[in-house]
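Suppose you are handed a protein chain with no further information: no name, no annotation, nothing but its sequence. What can you learn? This example shows the usual starting point.
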Amino acid sequence: MPTPNSGLCWVLPRKPLTDWESLGRCTQCSGKEGSIHMTIPYIEGRVSADQGDGIFTAARSMAAQLAILNVHTDNIANFGVPGYQRKSPVVHPFSDYIGPDQVEPLASQTVGRLRNSGQPLDFALAKPGYFQRLNPESGQINLSRDGRFKVNPDGTLLSLDGRYQILSTAGTPLRLPYVPENLNKQVQVGNDGAITFYEPKTGNSQAVGTLSVVSPTGAVVTDVEIRQGFVEDSNVYLQEEFVGIMPVRRQFEANRQLFILQNDTLSRMIQELGRAQ
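A reasonable first move is to predict its three-dimensional structure. Written in structure tokens, the prediction is:
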């Protein structure tokens, strides 16, 4: 098992050796200039082959625990972001072989707390699903549970930051006939996401379109429940995040101490070998 791609690569064998193996270019280090692959002999009574593995095991464990900590800290940082979904760290079963990608954050599909905002263009999803938002500059569609919208001068429904157009079930941006003077009275949204626009001069209402709600894979969601005038807060519970961090920090510190111990032992062994030559 080589160390990073620079300097010397120290590899402990699985069985005792009687002499040094030949030095040469380390193929495990992508053949970088200046890298040397050296096999260190097994020394009876001083160091075992498993000690070399212990360094890499501790390093891999620290990398995994650091990735888990990052997931928890991201959850804490996004606690106040509407529509944010808590991520759970999932450790890959083949974590020993995939390096930094050994921990994958998995989004929770639990609906967050619904808060009454009283704003007519705030729409909260009371069931799992995502709004579809179109980036007009790139043409890409992304998914979000943040239902805080606004209307631009031509009546197009936009995300609150103005970067995205909100799509209908027809796949086109939703657009009101014009910017209404009274949003509370003139814009109504049903539980199924159907938007109707009331014209006070004629007393008639017209259908504008239906908010598109899809699954994480982009499939159409039929069981939809949208609440107008509500905002969905994140589904993060801070106490759970802080409780989850504590054992991970203890494990990280334990593996750090193990790494230091194993590294010191291996360093002393290498120094002794150098003096013996």
